[in-house]
Amino acid sequence: MINKIVQTMADAMAGIEDGSTVLVGGFGDVGQPLHLIDGLIEQGAKDLVVVSNNSGVGRVGLARLFSVGRVRKVICSFPRSSDPVVFEELYRAGKLELEIVPQGTMAERMRAAGAGIPAFFTPTGVGTKLAEGKESREFNGRTCILENALRGDLALVEAWQADRWGNLIYKDSGRNFNPVMAMAADLTIVQSQHMADLGELNPEHIVTPGVYVDRVIHVPYDKA
Amino acid sequence: MDMAINFKPLGRDGMSARVADDIPEGWCVNLGVGIPTAIANYVPLDREVIIHSENGLVGMGPAPAPDKANPWLVNAGKQQVTMRQGGAYVHHADSFALIRGGHLDLCVLGAFEVAENGDIANWATSFSANAAAPAVGGAMDLCVGAKRLWVVMPHTSKKGESKLVRKCSLPLTALGCVTRIYTDLAVIDVTDKGFEVIEMIPGMTFEALQEKTAAMLHKVE
């Protein structure tokens, strides 16, 4: 019997190593797996590279992970999202390395990793500072730059519904990066608001099939 | 003595409303954060425009009524929004496939500078260690992906410097992409010749507009 459901946060976080590259779902704090991030802080892994669209809101979630000094580098498209107080402090103090990636390139680099594509050419960023040092080539008269796949050792994902196979359904704009990250990491851990019996989720509606998922923990909470 | 010129620049809402007038039914449109976001408020719902938001909304609707707020449904600026009938959700890689794949009829962005060759600078003012961190978001993808790129911005900066320039001095977002600019003073097409003025606010003259612009303006022939 396949059962990816774990009962405790300690089980969800078991085996995460220092130096891991961690893909963290969410757009701002919508779809950001806050409880898994707290679990990662509790677990203690350090020297992490975090890949996430933004760089934390207020002092919770990602911002808290930064503030306790566990993150060496953040790869993101928009670090200045609403209320990035902790990021700004650490960045100005030179304590956090930052790699800016165009949002679509970031998503596609992870999609490529999950899809077995080692690199791809894209027109995004051509002629800008973000193209510096990158191989370029012309296709149909248009210059493109080479971008490498971006794989995680770990992905932290938030879902709305999950079953014991790890099949996932998301809520509204909480979907964002979560399905892409789920497929792009060696170990994918999910927190889900609701649990469903196997067979209860309509196959037409499942966004992430369970093959991409390793562990699921049930975390119901009210979103303000 | 010059004749006194009497004109009233458009406000932010005026600029947003002016852009909205030019968006026809049936287009799929992405609106950037800031002034562009407000354009959605001036597209009547019975004109069926499909508004795309980079975080996976295809068919975004207006802001919710206060008692219908949904914290799970936000736009690119993280403001709460609604979906209109016919809307669909996609994940982030698919959202940018839609952008890069040429499926957007239009993208409207704000900018620091636009050059007469269509170059745009709108993502970073400095890379110095003391400055705020640079933040690009989806701007580079949107610039190269949309069929048309319109910019809406005040004609001059707060210091009074022209935001329409011969060559951008700030870090570029994309090369040669901007096709039209809506400012608080005029509507200007970016053509092979450079900036071509197609409309001015009441009271504005071509000469007065040229004086406020750091690049050659052309009249429509």
Topology:
The complex is a heterodimer of chains A (224) and B (221).
Chain A: H1 9-12, E1 21-24, H2 34-43, E2 48-51, H3 62-67, E3 71-76, H4 85-92, E4 97-100, H5 103-115, E5 119-122, E6 136-139, E7 142-148, E8 152-162, E9 168-169, H6 178-182, E10 185-195, E11 215-218
Chain B: H1 12-21, E1 28-31, H2 35-38, E2 50-53, E3 57-61, E4 82-89, H3 92-100, E5 106-109, E6 113-115, E7 120-121, H4 139-145, E8 149-152, E9 164-165, E10 178-182, E11 186-191, E12 194-200, H5 206-211, E13 217-219
Parallel strand pairs in B: 1-2, 1-5, 5-8, 6-9, 8-10, 12-13
Antiparallel strand pairs in B: 2-3, 3-4, 6-7, 10-11, 11-12
Describe the structure.
The complex is a heterodimer of chains A (224) and B (221). By secondary structure, chain A is of the alpha/beta class. In chain B, helix 3 runs parallel beside helix 4. Chain B is globular. The model of chain B has no long low-confidence stretch (mean pLDDT 94). Chain B is built from five helices and 13 strands. With 221 residues, chain B is of the alpha/beta class. The interface between A and B is large, with 51 and 43 residues.
Tally of strands of chain B: 13
Number of spatially distinct domains of chain B: 1
Query: DSSP helix count of chain B?
Result: 5
Main β sheet profile of chain B? 10 strands, mixed
In CATH, the homologous superfamily of chain A goes by the name: Glutaconate Coenzyme A-transferase
> Residue ranges of chain A: pLDDT <50 for 5 or more in a row?
none
